[in-house]
């Protein structure tokens, strides 16, 4: 669109001034962009921009600990069984010849005869003469006489352990009187075997006779 000149013939009218101002503004902006003026202007208005690296906060360890590893128990050791293999021994060949010797039994010597035992029978002791039994009064009045033979068991110390009638005198009162006296009063020499006193039976005779 053509601009008509003003009535007074001047080019710099108000509209012309506005146009010129717009042109100068664009030129100034273009020059400022190229010369870094805009960057200085932004820095002056907004201030310096500080850039820093912000580390991310550590994650909270809220997870439960992992379960312990499962350890499997090994099976018990079972030793292998002992296997014994019996190998039969090889039999000797049928044609083997064995030599045998026949021995005659050797006659065993006869056993040695037992050693004879030196034995002595019980007997009276001279230091202790044998006492005579008391004559029963009834037998004295009746005139009973006779000899009784007694079996007497003499101990190691010479005392009489037992007495019994082997052969009667023919009168009971006389036999009982003899047995009673032997058990009560007699002290004898014991029998011996190889010189050692041992209990032993011995025979003794008691005679009853009237002297008056």
TrEMBL record:
Domain TonB C-terminal: 120-212
Localization per Swiss-Prot or TrEMBL: Cell inner membrane
Source organism, top-level taxon: Bacteria
Transmembrane segments: 12-33
GO cellular component: plasma membrane
Name of the protein described by the UniProt record: TonB C-terminal domain-containing protein
GO biological process, one term: transmembrane transport
Main localisation: membrane
Keyword list, A-Z: Cell inner membrane, Cell membrane, Membrane, Protein transport, Transmembrane, Transmembrane helix, Transport
Family under the similarity heading: Belongs to the TonB family.
UniProt cross-references to Pfam families, sorted A to Z: TonB_C
Region (Disordered): 53-86, 99-143
Biased composition (Pro residues): 65-82, 107-116
Membrane-related topology note: Single-pass membrane protein
Gene3D superfamilies to which the protein is assigned, alphabetical: 3.30.1150.10
Organism from which the protein derives: Steroidobacter denitrificans
């Amino acid at each position: 669109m053509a601009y008509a000149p003003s009535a007074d013939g001047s080019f710099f009218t108000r509209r012309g001034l506005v146009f010129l101002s717009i042109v100068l503004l664009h030129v100034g902006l273009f020059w400022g962009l190229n010369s870094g003026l805009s960057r200085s202007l932004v820095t002056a208005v907004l201030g310096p921009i500080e850039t820093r690296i912000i580390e991310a906060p550590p994650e909270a360890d809220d997870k439960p600990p992992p379960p312990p590893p499962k350890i499997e128990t090994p099976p018990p050791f079972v030793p292998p069984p002992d296997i014994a293999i019996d190998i039969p021994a090889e039999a000797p060949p049928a044609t083997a010849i064995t030599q045998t010797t026949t021995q005659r039994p050797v006659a065993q010597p006869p056993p040695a005869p037992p050693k004879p035992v030196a034995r002595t029978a019980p007997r009276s002791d001279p230091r202790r003469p044998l006492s005579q039994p008391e004559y029963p009064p009834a037998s004295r009045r009746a005139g009973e006489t006779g000899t009784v033979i007694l079996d007497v068991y003499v101990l190691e110390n010479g005392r009489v352990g037992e007495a019994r009638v082997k052969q009667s005198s023919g009168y009971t009162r006389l036999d009982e009187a003899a047995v009673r006296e032997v058990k009560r009063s007699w002290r004898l020499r014991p029998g011996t075997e190889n010189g050692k006193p041992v209990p032993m039976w011995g025979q003794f005779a008691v005679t009853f006779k009237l002297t008056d």
